[in-house]
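Run: sequence + guanosine-5'-diphosphate -> complex structure.
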Amino acid sequence: MGRQGNTIAAVATPAGPGAIGILRLSGPGAADIAAACFRPLGRKGLLDHPTRTLVYGSLLDCEGQVIDQVLCTYSRGPASYTGEDTAELHCHGSPMVLSLGLEALFAQGARQAGPGEFTQRAFLNGRLDLAQAEGVADLLDARSREGARQAAGQLSGALSRKIAAIYSALVDVMAHFHAVLDYPDEDIDPFTQEQLARDLEAQRQDLEALLSTYQRGRRLSRGVKCAIVGRPNAGKSSLLNTLAGYDRAIVTDIPGTTRDTVEETVELGGIPLRLIDTAGLRDSSDPIEQLGVERSRRAMEEAELILVVLDQSQPAREEDAALIRAAVERAPTIVVLNKQDLPCQLEWTEPLDLAASVPICAKTGAGLDGLAELVAQTFPRDPGSGYGELLTNQRQAEAAGRALESVRRAGEALDLGVTPDALLTDVEEALSALGELTGQSVRDDVTDRIFQRFCVGK
Ligand code: GDP
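>> structure
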């Protein structure tokens, strides 16, 4: 039981019926437990097949009753996701089959895996570093194409390689300092001093560039808060519904219950947009919409992107111009000229020069490509950073920020002629902060918290 007891099992696919449902096992007892619960169709036993082969057969409960016809694969550690012996049972995606199958695995000595425990084991066994493990979580949570590409890059180690390059350069700097410390009676010679200053400055710049990726990384992982504003009847809720892909207004518009609580995320131009106050948008027939101006103002206050919707089939009013002016002062703004299918009566151009604008027909979705293009242009990709090289969460940004601070301090200390051992402390702190990013020097409670973010089975 000792070996088996450290073997974890979980359903790895989402709840509910599906084409396929997967049970996952990892730990020293994985081979025995899988072999006990799975009977191959052919004469060869599961473990007689080469590792990582898909074998067809029956999933059995502890009384030998067939639960399902399944495909089973066994991977011998350390060449597996977790680095341990693992097995997967690909069943029909029936919640009942998965429950019975899981019970069978437990009956053979496996225990229920906690959230993220498979990936945590992969981390503890050195199969993934912490930044890569966070890439796994980001990939599962991705709400936009750009976000998914970023997460996939992070999972494949792009961020880790960037950090490793800075880390290694700082280790070189430290080696230099140590060499100086070995001769404590001598001052740092001017040549060495200049070289060290140059090296520190180069790493300071790299760290600054790394830290500056956080803005986009955060937007991709958390979404850009977006306000859709405009006069009643301009077509705001039509635009929302077209963006959301289906007509939710009819379904969820129950006054007093959903108001002020609904927030939707849509993807536009590869960027996840969190639409603020969508409940308010759906209330256009409600008298409260008379307070539309107040609503718009509140929504604009928190926005990182503002879409001002104008009905271009109506003559523009001063309040439209005022709204555009107020918007551009607060956040990047796109003016959406709606109802392109109707003749244009707008009759002014001046306020339109203040922001990018795009013609659309919210009713049919015509012109949304142009809007998507403007959104993508508003939040452009930094040509210096490839996919997977962005910092995407606060933990990473804080650690990178501390590394930057320490390197900056070391550089200043060097300029001031501070003793080498004091400089060394700063560089060591920078290394330690960088190590937190990849998990080399991070406390267990911190990693535990990170893996709590994952779902059970991952
Ligand atoms: P809101 O008050 O700004 O949310 O505006 P709505 O989305 O409720 O739209 C007001 C009216 O304009 C509705 O009757 C819509 O069907 C209509 N409408 C919205 N977009 C278009 C469009 O692109 N073309 C036309 N012809 N009508 C539209």
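>> summary
The pocket of guanosine-5'-diphosphate is lined by residues 230, 232-238, 281, 284, 338-339, 341-342, 361-363 (CB under 6 Å). The two ends are 24 Å apart (CA to CA).
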